[in-house]
Amino acid sequence: MSMSFERYMLDMVQPMRDDLTRIGIQELRTPEEVETSLPDAKGTTLVVVNSVCGCAAGQCRPGVAEALQHDITPDHLFTVFAGQDKEATAKAREYFAPYPPSSPSIALMKDGELVHFIERHQIENRSAAEIAEDLTNAFDRYCR
């Protein structure tokens, strides 16, 4: 009995998806879901570009989880998964200009406009606590 590569990958990344969905972040898995969720979102929106890399597991996802314990948080919480939901990720990245594609990464938007962005290079060499602090500072500034 053999398992398809696609099934294997879906099973393999599910715990990585669960790290974010279990804390209330909604997955956007298609370009249509991105298009209906991001441009017209009123208030503030956090978008996490998830990935299978070590810095996503060790710093990004734990940093986001810690930041969401803050008293002030965004109105909307979304995630796309780079390398898995490729079309949805590409559509979300259209809203992150002028930043080049980066995964993992974290975007904070206000009324559909990008106001804060954390690129991979700002994740991989920082601790989860430092990422959480960066995010909570942005929440304090933009989510009031």
Automatic annotation (TrEMBL):
Lineage top rank: taxon: Bacteria
Entry-linked Pfam families: Disulph_isomer (PF06491)
Database matches in NCBIfam families: YphP_YqiW
Family stated for the protein in its record: Belongs to the bacilliredoxin family.
Protein name per its UniProtKB record: UPF0403 protein YphP
